[in-house]
Automatic annotation (TrEMBL):
It comes from Pangasianodon hypophthalmus. This is MYND-type domain-containing protein. Keywords: Metal-binding, Zinc, Zinc-finger. It comes from the Eukaryota. One of its GO terms (molecular function) is zinc ion binding. Residues 14-51 form the MYND-type domain. SUPFAM superfamilies: HIT/MYND zinc finger-like, TPR-like.
Amino acid sequence: MKLGESTIGTKKLCELCQKPAHLQCPNCRVTFYCDAAHQQADWNSIHEKVCELLISVRTPAPFYCFQADRDFHHIQTLKKLEHITELSHAAAKSWVSAGKYSEAIPAAQLSLRCAIDIYGPDVVELVPAYLLLAEASIGLGSLSQAESCLSQAEWMVMKNPGCSRTVLHLLHRTLGRLYSATGDYSSALLHFANDVYYASEEFGLDSVVTAGGYFLMANVFMKQEKTDIANSLYSEVASTWHAHLSKLMESYSQKEHEGAQYFDVAHCAEVNRMLSVMLEAQQQDVNTHPAYSTTLAHSLGQRALLSHSLAMLWFLCNDHKKALDFGRKAAEFSQQCEHNSLAESIQSLIQQAETHLNPEQTPIIHH
């Protein structure tokens, strides 16, 4: 059976739920749905981007007399399937990053079906699609569905002991998310520790990818009310992201990547949420321990650093109003710190944001 040729006998199956379908996409005419709601959901998630692409891969192959022609057609179909797989995986990942889990499901399902058509069942190449489905399911609170997807992914990894460290870090990160959602914090921390191990092996200890694992561990410690451990990890993550964003700002200033898109909308939203969580944690820590001067001093430094990071993030995402707002907050926190090491870079960013907002005015020099 070819991709999309979903039938029970002669019945077409819904693209999303695999129930008998009664509606047909009027454009490609090779995709079917059980009702208008599923048709609209699929269109919003991914189908609009792949509608025309699906025609050639879901239409029965013409008859070829020569084997060479059949082989050529097969190769071209595989290339088209690979392209659809990449598009749908990227769309699902973007929806998940934006926290729009319902929209992610149809795209992730399509990515999985295309990968199965290309590679076959029970192979490690299917793991990324299963992990996306699992993460979207966790976001929706469908934990049994997430557990089923992760069981499939674990089985495929076990059958392929030579799989990459990137796959292993993503598997353990998603397993950690599942156990955290179920309240099994010990198992969650174990998987996040494995996530950090494999991510550091692949990307380095100072990578923002590795920092993502530490951030998730800190969230678990916060749920366990182990705030000292959580804040210590948050500080490490904040420093890593500040260093990363500072390097991006430096390359921007030197026009090394002129016209480059540093963050797409979904990634920007994801990083913003992470930095904002850490900023809020610092504020709560001061509210909890208002009498401790050392805690207050450390918190002011962390809030300056995190606000500066948020200012750089929004600047690189071309939202100069938010960049200016966070830059000014960073300046306020920085001025209250005994060691004001960020002052110069914060003021430079404020001036750049003001220049973008008022290009015809001379930048205001802040003292």
